[in-house]
Each structure stands twice: as structure tokens, then as C-alpha cells.
Amino acid sequence: MPYKDLFRPPSPADKLNLFQLLFDASEISPDLALALLKIVHSDLSKEKGSEHSTYRQYAKTIEALRYHKADILQHVVNSWRAGKPVEDPEWLQNGKIK
User: Whole-angstrom Cα distance, residue 56 to residue 9?
Assistant: First the structure.
């Protein structure tokens, strides 16, 4: 990977890859899942002509949650529908990583 790629803004696919890494490591919390999925959804909505592969990856992510972590997906759906602001995860409160 070229060094300049380390400093580029992450793409929706990069964010989905992060989600997948956290999911595979069983490190995804309901609030973190909601936050990441909202960001990816927003990015995909803003980018006209986004790659179809990113949409497929997003759909596969949702399907994996439905199959393996239905409780997390239910939290995401309920929170999304309620439109309530998401509390920052404990490790991100006050803008400091704990």
C-alpha cells in the first residue's frame, strides 16, 4: 500500500471493512454497530454512482448481523426508527479514548 493512501479519507468500503473486522473479533457493540452503519448509509446516500460492490458489501453486513447477531441488528433498527441520538460508546466519551 502506498504511504499516501494512509492519509486519505476512508471510503464507505473501508468503513465496512472496519465493521467486519470488529464483527469477526466479536468487538462490535450495539451502539458502535449503529454508529458505523449510520455513517456508511449516509456516505452511500451522498455519493451518487457509488460502486455496486459497496452496496452489496453493505447488504451482506446487514445479513450477517441478522443471522449471527440478531439482537444487535434489532437495536440498530429500533434506534434508527426512533431517530434518537446515539450515545457515544463508553470508550469515546468526552472525546477521549479510554
Answer: 21
What the block records as the C-alpha cell of 67 is 443471522
Q: How far apart are CA 98 and CA 95, in angstroms?
A: 9
Full residue range of the structural domain in which residue 33 is found = 10-84
Residue 83 sits at φ, ψ, to 5 deg, of 70, 15
The average pLDDT across 81-93 equals: 62
pTM metric for this prediction = 0.73
C-alpha to C-alpha distance for 95 and 23, rounded to whole angstroms: 23
Residue partners of 23: CB distance under 8 A and separation at least 6: 61, 64, 65, 68, 69
- Count up the domains in the chain and report the number: 1
Q: In the structure grid, which three cell numbers stand for residue 79, read together?
A: 434506534
What separation in angstroms does the CA of 84 have from each of 7, 26, 32, 70, 95? 32, 25, 15, 20, 20
Domain-located, residue 1: no
